[in-house]
Amino acid sequence: DHMAEFMQTFHKYLVYTNVQAEGDDDDVAGDLEEVKASICEIIELYANRYEEDFAQLPQFVETVWSMLTTVGAAHKYDTLVSRGMAFLRTVVRNPRQRQLFANGDSLQLICERIVIPNAVLPTADEELFEDDPMQFVRRDVEGSDAGSRREAAADLVRGLLDQFGAETTQAMSRFIMQSLAQYAANSADWRQKDVAMFMATSVAVVASVGALGATRVNSLVDVADFYNTHVVPHLRAVDSDRDAPILKADALKYVTTFRSQLPHDVLVQALPMLTAHLAHPDTAVATYAAVAIERLLVLKQQGVLRLGASDVQPHAEAMLSHIFTALARADSPQKLAENDYLMKTVMRVILASRTSILPLAPAALEALARILAEVSKNPSNPRFSHFLFEALGALARFACASDASAIAQFEATLFPIFQNILQQDVAEFMPYVFQILAQLLSVHQGSGRLPDAYVALLQPLLQPALWAAQPNIPALVRLLQSYLQIGGAQLAAEGSLQPILGVFQRLVASRANDHHAFALLLAVTLYVPESALANVLRPVLVLCLSRLQTSRTPKFVRNFVHYVGAILCLSSGVSMLLDTMDSIQPDLFVSLLQNILLDALPTVVGRVERKTTVVGFGLLVASPRFQNSPSYAALTTPVLLQVTSILMDAAVKDSKAQADQAQADDEDLDSLEIDDSGYQASFARLATLGDAKIDPCPQFTDAAAGLAQALKPAQSVVASSQLPAEARQFLSTLLQS
């Protein structure tokens, strides 16, 4: 209701001048600059949301326009200029305000007096490029919270393109060509080429996303021609542009930005040039080259990588060599770990090479081990650490897949470093070490015996102090799963199950860790001989039942149901489970099934978990032990109804999961990002190690096939059950398929 009054006040202070109210320091905004910036932010909000009531909009457009053409270049005005341009961008993108900019000279004047002056690289940024190249790259690649004049100018151009595509392109192209001509006449005037490259990108990009770069480009701009004419000359030779390394950074950023728009053959031709620039003496240039390569290696078109292993392999050795050489120049652990972009590219090169990395594995392993030994002295960059261990995990995974004998070199190289990390209690690295150890141990699958080095390590791994640190728990459970998978029978024979079950007892008592307890227990159940399992199952179930009685949670019940299903999938699982339950209390399982398990069956989540549960309880219903007992037989229909409902509800999900599973595993590695891999400050799962999910019935591809096989011996039971018609028809069809 009082909009006119306070808009008048806003306008008053927007045009107000007072030298004493301005900041004395050219680098720090004063009160007046901050007030004007806030006013621009407010009027942008009104222009965006309350346009109909904003009668003063044309007046503010004229005022802000005028202000932007006269404000100084000092850093203290940056926020004001950025917010002023953001206001103009919001207005110009509105078709209903088109007439405010439709004047013949308006677009030319905006480009000439507002966009171009603010697109010039600030002196402060030039100094930052030289003095702190990593900060320059990080701010450019990841964006700056405060925003910059350059970013605001580019956004304003995109706003103009929305409504005046041809006119804006023509106006900006004129300035771009003038700048290019000035640079061609005098290569020492590199700032002209820099601003031309920046504005060419701003004019060409219509839409972009982080994973793909520019997804839509201005149809009036020939991106490939500009690349060949004005970008490639800066990439042909590493030692060119010695006085203007920023131009190399611009060229590398152009490739990164338009990677989805450049043809495949152009990308393949660019790869050796990008690789060569990894060896550039300027840290920023080498880092931009690493970013470009890393982004190219994950680029997909219709779900397929645009650069395959055959494209990458000829350059993989040079890529790794240049990066390791650059990292070796660091004079401290902190400096070494500063550039996580380089380490991320190492990880990506290994992932892109897959098993063809084998010839390069020894040298790569030695270099990564040296880096690990150094940064473990003082971990300072969690992102660098994560990518370092991902690279180690990927290298071990693919090298050992090609040549199982390579495991000896990995263990000989890494064990001393791991031992030092554990002895020095480097808390940040311990979860990673346990995961890599689990991976290396799993390579010994099929031997039936645990190597001596791992046997010696087992007792220290079971010490309570390690398990008291929450970040260690998921990784330690994964490692113990590998121990059981490789040497379950050996551990049972040597009496090592009790300490492991002691760990289970500790975890199952914790609401935060009970799911880890069941993951460990599942490995014990599946990898230990059934005769040994029968001896420990009773105390295990007593602990679970006690927890059900005293501190039941939906998560615990869900995991317990899945575990019961896993026991039932064993060859003698039904009789073992029922005998053990009866030894605790007669007819205990009848009560448990009736009051807890039945209702909880549909809560089980996960493709493998649902399959295990459905198959296990199907085997239970079909067993003579179940059908010959009146108290159990009375529960036939309720159990069948629940497992059938799981399948009927999840049929589409299971089918899709089965069809996509193998492809999904590859996609996870192809496009692995730190956020997707479960990275946190406390614990980060290594995605390159693959999924450690245990499948109690791998012989069945899906739950439906497993249930059909389980119920075949008891088809008459199914036929005589009191199932609803839909469920009975579903099961009948399943059994006949």
Describe the protein's topology.
Elements: H1 3-14, H2 31-49, H3 57-70, H4 78-92, H5 106-119, H6 123-131, H7 133-142, H8 149-163, H9 165-185, H10 190-204, E1 205-209, E2 213-217, H11 223-231, H12 245-257, H13 264-277, H14 283-297, E3 300-301, E4 304-305, H15 309-328, H16 333-336, H17 340-353, H18 361-375, H19 382-402, H20 407-423, H21 430-442, H22 452-461, H23 464-467, H24 472-493, H25 497-508, H26 514-527, H27 530-550, H28 554-568, H29 573-584, H30 588-600, H31 607-622, H32 624-627, H33 630-633, H34 636-670, H35 703-711, H36 715-720, H37 725-736
Antiparallel strand pairs: 1-2, 3-4
Question: Descriptors for this entry?
Answer:
37 helices; two-stranded antiparallel ribbon; 4 strands; mainly alpha
Structural class: mainly alpha
Major β-sheet, in short? 2 strands, antiparallel
| Total helical elements | 37
Low-confidence residue ranges: 652-667, 676-680
What strand order characterises the main sheet?
Answer: 1-2
Give the mean pLDDT. Answer: 92
Shape verdict: globular
Work out the strand percent.
under 5%
Cα radius of gyration in angstroms:
33 Å
How many β-strand runs?
4
Helix content: 55-70%
- Roughly how many Å apart are the termini? 72 Å
Summary, kept brief:
The chain has 737 residues and is mostly helical.
Provide a descriptive summary of the structure in words.
- This protein has 37 helices and four strands.
- The radius of gyration is 33 Å and the shape is globular.
- 69% of the residues lie in helices and 2% in strands.
- The longest helix is centred in the last third of the chain and has 35 residues, at 636-670.
- A hairpin with a 3-residue loop joins strand 1 (205-209) and strand 2.
- The chain has a two-stranded antiparallel ribbon. Strands 3-4 form a two-stranded antiparallel ribbon.
- Residues 652-667 and 676-680 have low confidence and may be disordered.
- The chain is mainly α and 737 residues long.
- Helix 28 crosses helix 31.
